[in-house]
Specification:
The protein has a single domain, classed as Alpha/alpha barrel (Glycosyltransferase). It is 53% helix and 9% strand. It contains twelve helices and 13 strands. Strands 3-4-5 form a three-stranded antiparallel beta sheet. The protein has a three-stranded antiparallel beta sheet with strand order 6-7-8. Strands 9-10-11 form a three-stranded antiparallel beta sheet. It is globular, with a radius of gyration of 20 Å. The N and C termini lie close together (11 Å). Keywords: Isomerase. GO terms for molecular function: isomerase activity. This is N-acylglucosamine 2-epimerase (GlcNAc 2-epimerase).
Length: 382
């Protein structure tokens, strides 16, 4: 039996309450960038625009689902802090270091641009304003006009803080997949049908270039001419890609793309189910090598993505196997990943004990995978 909406709402409430109680610096009305498993502030954790935009998304979506004004306040704090990362040359800076100076990560900064758009749109859904609409328009135009390869299509990674391209440009799955997600959210917000061809193009690019045709694994990075670079297979990204592609295709109502994405998603899931699930201890591993897991831990976000991918598989096939397996994973998450504080552990061992050395909140772990998990379960309405 699927967990009740009451139980899932309570888990989400507990998660959001964790953020309200532990992550706000009330002295200057900002978010802390790190919280330990003992709920202590980690003062030297760097702060990133992706972290803030994910918090903006999570708080906004929490408010959308549960309608508690405290979550709107949390979203507003995230929004104000994110604005301080705005780059006068366009887009948003990657991060601030301990000295409060902006730093850059050329391979990843484009992904932060996608998440920033995603967060701004989520906030606009609950607190619309002329300022927000201008920020959203500026960011969406910046992404399409500055980061896009007009010769060979796709987004180019490798920019410095002035948006000059470095000597080793690439094209990554992360940038394309999360930009697709951001523009889907934008279309849902403004219903601008001129966005749909761009969404279809991104779907086609991912299907064509980022999924292998034999093992149906995601390829993480290419050269600018679409030559695959050395790849590490992540089952979590495979699962995430499978359901996002289908969700995107369904949004376009393009029947050919819907069919193509559905077929691809089931092939991806067949591989993950056979290779990544821990049939002894529960949950799934992430990193695979030669079709086998090479880890002794489970990470939080692949578990969430697996649930959504399995629910998507059930929606496509109506095969109860997918639904039952999704329920197993949801129980595994509830029983093992959720700390008594309400936040999810980053990592647990095969023994199901948490790795308490890794913080509950850190540069790469904000309010995205957790809150989106609850939001999308409700979207699937299964």
């Amino acid at each position: 039996m699927m967990p009740s909406k009451k139980l899932l709402d309570q888990e989400l409430t507990n998660n959001l309450q964790f953020w309200l109680q532990n992550c706000i610096n009330h002295t200057n009305n900002t978010l802390y960038s790190g919280i330990s498993t003992t709920c202590n502030v980690i003062s030297d954790e760097p702060l990133g625009s992706m972290y803030l935009s994910r918090a903006l998304y999570g708080a906004s979506t929490g408010y959308l689902l549960l309608k508690k004004k405290e979550y709107l306040n949390l979203a507003t704090i995230s929004f104000q802090q994110l604005k301080s990362f705005k780059n006068p040359k366009g887009g948003y800076y990657w991060s601030k270091n301990r000295s409060n100076k902006f730093t850059n990560a050329p391979d990843d900064v484009n992904m932060a641009q996608a998440f920033t758009l995603y967060g701004l749109v989520a906030y606009a859904k609950i607190n619309p304003s002329t300022e927000l609409n201008e920020l959203i328009e500026n960011q969406s135009n910046f992404i399409r006009n500055t980061l896009w390869d007009t010769k060979h299509s796709g987004f180019i990674d490798g920019f410095d803080q002035n948006w000059n391209l470095g000597s080793s440009p690439t094209k990554s799955l992360g940038t394309h997949l999360h930009t697709l997600e951001a523009f889907l959210a934008l279309y849902e917000y403004n219903n601008d049908k001129s966005i749909l061809p761009f969404i279809e193009e991104l779907i086609t690019l991912i299907l064509t270039h980022f999924i292998t045709k034999d093992t149906y694994d995601c390829i993480h990075r290419h050269t600018t001419l679409w030559k695959p670079l050395k790849n590490e297979v992540w089952a979590g990204h495979n699962a995430e890609c499978s359901w996002i592609l289908c969700y995107a295709a369904n949004t376009t109502k393009n029947e050919e793309l819907i069919l193509q994405c559905n077929i691809t998603a089931i092939k991806i899931m067949s591989q993950i189910i056979n290779k990544a699930i821990d049939t002894k201890n529960g949950g799934m591993f992430n990193v695979l090598e030669n079709g086998k897991p090479i880890e002794t831990v489970k990470i939080w976000w692949p578990q969430a993505e697996m649930v959504l991918a399995l629910l998507n598989g059930y929606k496509i096939t109506n095969d109860i196997f997918y639904k039952n397996l999704a329920i197993d994973f949801m129980k595994f998450i509830s029983d093992n990943f959720i700390d008594k504080s309400g936040e999810w552990y980053t990592e647990i061992y095969n023994s199901k004990q948490p790795n308490t050395k890794i913080p509950l909140v850190h540069f790469w772990k904000s309010m995205y995978h957790t809150v989106r998990y609850y939001f999308m379960i409700e979207k699937f309405s299964i």
